[in-house]
Amino acid sequence: MLRDEQVLENAQRVGATMLDGLNALARKYECIGDVRGTGLYFGVEMVRDRAKKDTDIATALKVVNGLRQRRVLISATGPDASVLKIRPPLVFAAKDADRLLTELDKVLAAL
Protein backbone atom coordinates (compact mmCIF):
# COMPACT_ATOMS: atom_id res chain seq x y z
CA MET A 1 0.00 0.00 0.00
CA LEU A 2 2.66 2.56 0.98
CA ARG A 3 4.73 1.56 -2.04
CA ASP A 4 1.75 1.83 -4.37
CA GLU A 5 0.96 5.32 -3.10
CA GLN A 6 4.64 6.37 -3.44
CA VAL A 7 4.68 7.81 0.07
CA LEU A 8 8.47 7.72 0.36
CA GLU A 9 8.93 9.50 -2.96
CA ASN A 10 6.36 12.10 -1.92
CA ALA A 11 8.15 12.68 1.40
CA GLN A 12 11.46 13.16 -0.40
CA ARG A 13 10.03 15.49 -3.05
CA VAL A 14 7.86 17.61 -0.76
CA GLY A 15 10.54 17.52 1.94
CA ALA A 16 13.06 19.03 -0.47
CA THR A 17 10.58 21.81 -1.27
CA MET A 18 10.01 22.44 2.42
CA LEU A 19 13.73 22.51 3.22
CA ASP A 20 14.37 24.97 0.38
CA GLY A 21 11.50 27.16 1.57
CA LEU A 22 12.61 27.08 5.20
CA ASN A 23 16.16 27.99 4.20
CA ALA A 24 14.81 30.90 2.14
CA LEU A 25 12.92 32.11 5.21
CA ALA A 26 16.11 31.78 7.27
CA ARG A 27 17.87 34.10 4.82
CA LYS A 28 15.00 36.57 5.15
CA TYR A 29 14.53 36.55 8.95
CA GLU A 30 17.38 37.00 11.45
CA CYS A 31 15.36 35.23 14.16
CA ILE A 32 15.98 31.90 12.42
CA GLY A 33 19.33 30.61 13.59
CA ASP A 34 19.34 27.20 11.94
CA VAL A 35 17.22 24.95 9.74
CA ARG A 36 17.68 21.21 9.69
CA GLY A 37 15.66 18.30 8.49
CA THR A 38 15.22 15.27 6.35
CA GLY A 39 12.22 13.85 4.56
CA LEU A 40 9.21 15.50 6.20
CA TYR A 41 10.79 16.18 9.59
CA PHE A 42 12.25 19.64 10.26
CA GLY A 43 13.66 21.74 13.06
CA VAL A 44 13.82 25.52 12.82
CA GLU A 45 15.84 27.08 15.63
CA MET A 46 14.63 30.47 16.82
CA VAL A 47 17.34 32.79 18.15
CA ARG A 48 17.69 36.27 19.61
CA ASP A 49 21.12 36.74 18.07
CA ARG A 50 22.13 34.68 15.05
CA ALA A 51 25.86 35.14 15.63
CA LYS A 52 25.71 34.11 19.28
CA LYS A 53 22.97 31.50 18.71
CA ASP A 54 21.11 32.70 21.82
CA THR A 55 17.89 30.71 21.78
CA ASP A 56 14.59 32.57 21.76
CA ILE A 57 11.81 30.74 23.54
CA ALA A 58 9.40 33.68 23.35
CA THR A 59 9.64 33.98 19.58
CA ALA A 60 9.23 30.23 19.12
CA LEU A 61 6.04 30.37 21.20
CA LYS A 62 4.75 33.37 19.22
CA VAL A 63 5.34 31.50 15.96
CA VAL A 64 3.62 28.32 17.18
CA ASN A 65 0.62 30.32 18.41
CA GLY A 66 0.54 32.54 15.32
CA LEU A 67 0.44 29.50 13.08
CA ARG A 68 -2.22 27.89 15.27
CA GLN A 69 -4.41 30.98 14.77
CA ARG A 70 -3.96 30.41 11.03
CA ARG A 71 -4.95 26.74 11.48
CA VAL A 72 -1.44 25.39 10.91
CA LEU A 73 -0.31 23.09 13.71
CA ILE A 74 3.33 22.67 14.67
CA SER A 75 5.06 22.51 18.04
CA ALA A 76 8.29 23.59 19.72
CA THR A 77 10.90 21.27 21.16
CA GLY A 78 14.45 21.22 22.44
CA PRO A 79 15.93 21.76 25.90
CA ASP A 80 14.30 25.19 26.11
CA ALA A 81 11.49 24.77 23.53
CA SER A 82 13.09 27.17 21.04
CA VAL A 83 13.12 24.83 18.04
CA LEU A 84 10.04 24.73 15.84
CA LYS A 85 9.22 21.08 15.22
CA ILE A 86 7.55 20.57 11.86
CA ARG A 87 6.53 17.00 11.11
CA PRO A 88 3.58 16.79 8.76
CA PRO A 89 2.00 13.48 7.74
CA LEU A 90 3.60 11.49 4.95
CA VAL A 91 0.75 12.40 2.61
CA PHE A 92 1.65 16.10 2.90
CA ALA A 93 1.42 17.51 -0.63
CA ALA A 94 3.23 20.36 -2.40
CA LYS A 95 0.18 22.61 -1.96
CA ASP A 96 0.27 21.90 1.79
CA ALA A 97 3.95 22.81 1.92
CA ASP A 98 3.26 26.05 0.06
CA ARG A 99 0.54 26.94 2.56
CA LEU A 100 2.73 26.18 5.57
CA LEU A 101 5.61 28.23 4.17
CA THR A 102 3.31 31.13 3.23
CA GLU A 103 1.68 31.22 6.67
CA LEU A 104 5.06 30.93 8.42
CA ASP A 105 6.35 33.86 6.36
CA LYS A 106 3.31 35.94 7.37
CA VAL A 107 3.72 35.10 11.05
CA LEU A 108 7.44 35.92 11.00
CA ALA A 109 6.81 39.18 9.16
CA ALA A 110 4.31 40.21 11.86
CA LEU A 111 6.78 39.71 14.74
TrEMBL record:
<dbReference type="InterPro" id="IPR005814">
    <property type="entry name" value="Aminotrans_3"/>
</dbReference>
<dbReference type="GO" id="GO:0008483">
    <property type="term" value="F:transaminase activity"/>
</dbReference>
<dbReference type="InterPro" id="IPR015422">
    <property type="entry name" value="PyrdxlP-dep_Trfase_small"/>
</dbReference>
<comment type="similarity">
    <text>Belongs to the class-III pyridoxal-phosphate-dependent aminotransferase family.</text>
</comment>
<keyword id="KW-0032">Aminotransferase</keyword>
<dbReference type="InterPro" id="IPR015424">
    <property type="entry name" value="PyrdxlP-dep_Trfase"/>
</dbReference>
<keyword id="KW-0808">Transferase</keyword>
<dbReference type="Pfam" id="PF00202">
    <property type="entry name" value="Aminotran_3"/>
</dbReference>
<protein>
    <submittedName>
        <fullName>Class III aminotransferase</fullName>
    </submittedName>
</protein>
